[in-house]
Write a structure and sequence with these properties.
It is built from six helices and seven strands; from the N terminus they run E-H-H-E-E-E-H-E-H-E-H-H-E. The longest helix is centred in the N-terminal third of the chain and has 18 residues, at 18-35. By secondary structure, it is α+β, with helices and mostly antiparallel strands. Helices cover 34% and strands 30% of the residues.
């Protein structure tokens, strides 16, 4: 019998649960280390426990639960009056390929559609030169689920603190999907 994955926004006070914050941080850093291999200098952590706790405290993190354990997460926040953005999408290695990532995205799309937002967007870090196999796979997947490239930004202008941690020059491709 297939187990049901439950997805919910974590309550603001869930950031005080150090074990869950550390677990989420480890999932995100493992997933991003694999999907962004070669883009970051050795030892660069994509996210810290302090940042995860802050995002949870802001009410921005949804978690996917399976058998009482967090197996995935996504961060979502309001960008403009009519646009929300998701990021920090990560699913534990043992649950990859089970549709949990798609369910997390659907959850935040539905949540913000109910709030009458018109667009959901995401940012994809890509190298300026050549193709990165994992990033190309993500681009194709996001396109299949309805996201289209809206514009590009520089890492230096959007995330100046990340620029020095990159191993190769990168840019940010912003994808959007109309919610209604």
């Amino acid at each position: 019998m297939e187990q049901t994955v439950e997805i919910e926004m974590l309550p603001d006070d869930a950031g005080a649960n150090i074990a869950n914050v550390e677990h989420i941080t480890k999932i995100v850093n493992r997933v991003y280390a694999a999907s962004e291999k070669g883009l970051w200098k050795d030892g660069a952590a994509r996210i810290t426990t302090e940042e995860v706790a802050e995002y949870i405290g802001n009410g921005e993190v949804a978690a996917a639960w399976l058998k009482g354990q967090i197996v995935g997460c996504i961060r979502v926040c309001q960008m403009t009056e009519d646009t929300a953005e998701f990021g920090m999408l990560a699913v534990d290695d043992a649950c990859q390929g089970a549709g949990i990532g798609r369910k997390l995205i659907q959850f935040v799309e539905d949540k913000f559609r109910e709030k009458s937002f018109l667009y959901m967007q995401l940012e994809l870090l890509v190298p300026q030169q050549g193709l990165h196999e994992e990033k190309e796979g993500l681009r194709e997947w996001y396109t299949r689920i309805g996201y289209q490239k809206a514009h590009m930004e520089t890492v230096e202008s959007s995330f100046p603190n990340f620029a020095a941690m990159l191993a190769v020059p990168c840019e940010i491709h912003v994808y959007q999907k109309k919610l209604c």
